[in-house]
Amino acid sequence: MADNTKSHHLLILSRLDQAHYIELVMQPKSQQLVSVIHVAGADAAKFLQGQLTADVVNLAPMQWCYAGHCDAKGKLWAVMRVVKTGNDFYLLIDPESSDASLTQLKKFSVFSQVTFSDISGEVSAVFKTTSPLPLHQVEQHAQVLAIGFGPSSLHIDLAPQAVAADHGSQHLDAWQRFELETGVPRLAPETIAEYVPQMVGLDRLGGINFKKGCYIGQETVARMHYLGQNKRAPRLLTGSLGQSNHTMPAPGTVLEQKLGDNWRRAGAVINAVRYDSSEVGVLAVLPADIQDDTNIRIKGDEQSVLTLRPKFDN
């Protein structure tokens, strides 16, 4: 799998003012970096294989991979990182989409020997920007799992000894900037069941195995791949909001492109972050062939200006 983390990592470090780590511990769901779902049981691997887009059965111990969880129409409930330890798995899902995904997984698991436990409120998570670990590698030290992203890593303490103080929302912002700038989509209620995995770049992240057996939504995902039907792709944009607009664009917000003297729909926001009072970053689903010099704005904010950044590495 290609290391797609490096291309924007220096930008991330500059945004973080070279912070050594970002920590969120024992926070309410709205302030958690990730939801952590523990999956166990004799049928765990087999069941996940039939639910997710990744080849979970052949995932080696102490490795992780991206995966998508789709509905029957091939639209995403969630994008996740699947971590395999021994015979168990941990699903790392954005908190805004974890409940919807977990509900569906549990619904289909009633005839399998598999259990799902949301342990998000029982663990601590630390994102270390200066603690390199090879991409997709997992290390375990006592009760701490280290999840490798290449130049950085996420450390999850499965048995924290104490509850740490709230370090502020800026730490969550920093984690979300990292995901946004590396093209990792975070689905929200407004965007759940809106996109086929390829539209948000899950294939680029190595989160779809087109040779594995059937899984829910597989027909749509495979057809789009083999017939070349996908015309959308995730793109990173940076820019500014209108002077009178202090509200960040929500997931699902429409973006417009200038065509001649008119503005037409171009796509929609997946996630957005604020860098400072005047600059924002946006991850959006746009036409795959959109030109890099296209003028983009937020619908309803005529003074907003967004500039396309280079395409994500394949």
UniProtKB/TrEMBL annotation:
GO terms for biological process: iron-sulfur cluster assembly. It holds the Pfam family YgfZ_barrel. Residues 230-301 form the tRNA-modifying protein YgfZ-like beta-barrel domain. It comes from Aliidiomarina maris. This is tRNA-modifying protein YgfZ-like beta-barrel domain-containing protein.
